[in-house]
Amino acid sequence: MARRQEQETAREEVTELAPDVLRMELPIRLPGLGHVNCYAITDRDGVAVVDPGLPGPSAFRALQVRLKQIGMAPRHVHTVIVTHSHPDHFGGATQLAKEAGAKIVAHRAFGFGPPAMHQAPEVSVDDLDAQREDDEERRRTMEQLASTAKGKTPWGSERQQPSWRTRLKWRALGWVSGRIVPHISDPVEHGDVMNLAGREWFVVHTPGHTTDHFCLHDPETGIFLAGDHVLPTITPHIAGMASSHDPLASYFYSLDRVAEIANVGQVLPAHGHPFEGLAGRTVEIKEHHVERLAMVKQISRNYGRPATVNEFSQHLFKPRSQGPMADSETFAHLEHLRLAGEADLHVGQDGLHRYVSG
Ligand SMILES: [Zn+2]
Ligand SMILES: [Zn+2]
User: Fold this and answer.
1) What is the pLDDT of residue 280?
2) What is the pLDDT of residues 63-77, one digit of tens each?
3) How far is the CA of 89 from the centre of ligand 2 (A)?
4) Per-chain mean pLDDT for the chain
5) CA of 182 to the centre of ligand 2 (A)
6) What is the assigned CATH class of domain 283-357?
């Protein structure tokens, strides 16, 4: 499969997309992704940045280099907006708050849940097939991280513990302990209005990819900051290991919610190129999940007996994609069917969840 635009390597070039709105690409190393877009919104007081990349000095330097091109430095950042609680989006926030006294804006539900959830994958396991060669190693690291929580998965299987070497490495980076998760000084919620670049931007709460995800809409220019809610060519990861009962239902609801917004022009995603046609893209993403749900039912009919999450997963995904991430996505789809009354759950003496559907 050809490389997707979300996998392109971060360029140093800064592009202006609308008056006072600029795109800066920051390097990231996550499975299926090559960069994260950090948007700069400038005004008389300085600059607000949306999703300032991964934690750590090299990501921060990359941000500095790009800010310099627009005549800014980290000390000019007065506001950091974090669309959701994933490290490639909130990474630079704490340092900007420390160095510039920037306020940190995120949804009021930000950061709930165990630290392991902050290391949830970004893109659907399907889209990892389009990955670069070195992604295989990154994917394995993510899978190990997803297993840092102890005990059993919500569907009753044993978690695989990462090696002590991996655990030590991540502890040193402070990720597992949650040290890099920022303190949110200015929590927002759906319907709030933010003043940026002298214009009013509306907060649209869009749970699904994470419970705390939100988008920002500026009706005056039509700009829609989409975060990871709607990406141009890949499907965001919807985890079964989430704090809500039915993350897929939340996601469908949030896709409909943004498709209905009037005066949307340019969509600025957190990964990939700016695009137009927000409503059409939400339909495509929904179709992907509807197909996946139909496949789940077909697999159940083929088994002709209650099957475990892992058994479903083995038929839904290619062998190279198997693992905790694939299982987590499968679990989200099975629970969605169960809560819609289209699947039955049996919990065996072994503690494993088994589902029948269709
Ligand atoms: Zn994300
Ligand atoms: Zn992302």
Assistant:
1) 98
2) 999 999 999 999 999
3) 6
4) 87
5) 16
6) mainly alpha
